[in-house]
Fold these 3 entries.
Entry 1:
Amino acid sequence: MKLETFSYLPEFSVDQRADQIRSIVARGLVVGIEYSAAPDPYDHYWTLWKLPLFDIDDAATVMIELDACRRANPGCYVKVNGYDPVRQGQVSSFIFCQPAKNA
């Protein structure tokens, strides 16, 4: 399923995902984790995993929460959003993981 602007690019590797998370945290963005079993390009509302991760400056903490969301929702897409607290808007978003093809 193609959901994002750059969906024609190959999936991020584990290292590339970690780099993206480090970049979001380094820019001081607030991390929000969302998931959806059946995403639809016309439905922009996914389920929020816990509360946004305010005041988190450690990418490892974000990765732990992403893995927890993935394990709790194995048949779902998991998305990471970065919110700018100054501009008060979303400035970064990418699919962290997809369900297995045979799930």
Note: The mean pLDDT is 87.
Entry 2:
Amino acid sequence: MKIKLINIACSRSGDKGSNSNVGLIFKNQQIYDWAKEYITIDKVKFHLKSIVNGDVKRYEMDNIFALNFILYDSLGGGGSESLINDAQGKTHGQAMLLMEVDLPDHLINQ
């Protein structure tokens, strides 16, 4: 079933220099296990293509059911140099939660 990530996760985002990060925290172990397979670097980069100009790196945090993505060159040079992107990175998590995913039927009621 097609849903948005906001239905199965919450997010937290921040910034450092010209990069930002987005953490996705999933509701339970089963959804997190699915997310580790489904939410790839390539899918994140495609979804945030208007924000991310560099690479994307992913870290897995199994103990809290979370994925953290570093979005390189996503702030147009940093907080004082860009008016185009959210120069503080604070909305990148919300943008990520709008990503549409194809959640398997057996996880819908999790």
Note: The longest helix spans residues 29-38.
Entry 3:
Amino acid sequence: AYFVRALHVLSLRWFVIVPAGVVTVDPMTLADPVLVLREQIADLSRAPIRPPTGAGVVDLRLGATARSLRLDLSTPVKLARLRRPATTVEIIDATTILIATTRPGDAIETVRHHRRLSV
């Protein structure tokens, strides 16, 4: 039962490409889904194994390093980040978001294609 619940919680984590930009849904680390508009995306690339540090960097990978994405933003986006215990929320102005995905190459190519369509 424990493993089924753990897998179910992982299945609720999404990185979705929508016409307006990208949406990150992660109930394990975020209080609410986050929409990043297409115009706010400065770059989407593979994340380095050692995450960058500093103000504005938000790591949503929960320890995962392989197949990660680095989403750099041209303007900060407000995130409601859950803190342990999950009853507290911290509002962060994110300029870089690190996300673990299963198919990072496809996500990068699709976002770049969508950005070309908006120009």
Note: The helical segments are 2-11, 104-118.
